[in-house]
Automatic annotation (TrEMBL):
One of its GO terms (cellular component) is mitochondrion. GO terms for biological process: mitochondrial respiratory chain complex I assembly. This is FAD-dependent oxidoreductase domain-containing protein 1. GO terms for molecular function: oxidoreductase activity. Pfam families: DAO. It comes from the Eukaryota. Required for the assembly of the mitochondrial membrane respiratory chain NADH dehydrogenase (Complex I). Involved in mid-late stages of complex I assembly. Residues 46-321 form the FAD dependent oxidoreductase domain.
Amino acid sequence: MFCTSFPRPRCPQYSNPINVKISQFGIEFIRGFGEAMAPYFPGEATPSLGFRDHGYLYCVSPEGADAARARVEMQRSLGAHTVYLDQGALKDRFPWLNVEDLAGGSWGSKDEGWFDSMGLLNGFRRAARAEGVEYIDNAVTGLEVEDDRVTSVKLSTGEVVSCGTLVNAAGPRAQQVAAMTGLSIPVMPHKRYSFVFASETPVPGRMPNVIDLSGTFVRPEGELFLTGNTPLDDGPADFDDFAIRHDEFEDRIWPALWHRIPAFDALRVMQSWCGHYEYNMLDHNGIVGFHPQIRNFMFANGFSGHGLQQSPAVGRAVSELILYGAFQTLDLTPFRYERIAANEPFLEEAVI
């Protein structure tokens, strides 16, 4: 996995109602983060997540217009502030956008944007330590299973830690951890390349995160811009392969950017990196819950690129399962592990 100081996304524009609800809880959590963290920062400024409420703008093709309108209607029925803009309204709202090949776009006009991931991580870490959590900088190399429980965890240094409940939150390495107990889940690392660039011509106004028909996205990052896409060779990668392909920007991303936003005719890449999505190859949705046979082994895996924005709701759900044995607030039963074993996808279409 990779961490970056660049703000990460928060968006309720999903095709599945439960994912919309998860993101709505995330928005509420992010907005109240400073207040929630205040007890753990006595006499100090609480961490600011710098939420940029600019929204996401999904470009919509003529053949995709009906489905896009239906998604917007569903999202709005749940209280989201998504709006569908036809071609003319889209051009009026974002005059710098090339709309000639678009039917329109769906835009989150409120409570949608991106935030500082490291601020979230550091706040969680500070609060957890204050509550008695011990962080161990080590690697898990083995799990001891007796009867129907994981009893201990072996670390690379040879230490052994006894286990009450094991939560597999290993991101792209989730399958490696599952395999230590003889289990298997369809979660593998998929490479994603990110590029930060400068443009000679600025984009005026409050620019959203634009998701092009090609799958390329771009959003402002201060005076710069962050972009990425889904590579053509989007297959499982080696767990330690973080080599970046710079030609992905030259050959695919830049042409897509220039077509959609003509102001991007002269760009200069300032920074780039490669990270891994923990990609659930069954249905692009997370796996949350206990294994039915190894009863203290819990999954929190496979979020396929939207894990950070779903982490507040999923973390709450994991704690509810551990404390109460059932979901108490948002019912995440559709994410249960049993669908994996039965090969029954719970599909999410809005994955970039």
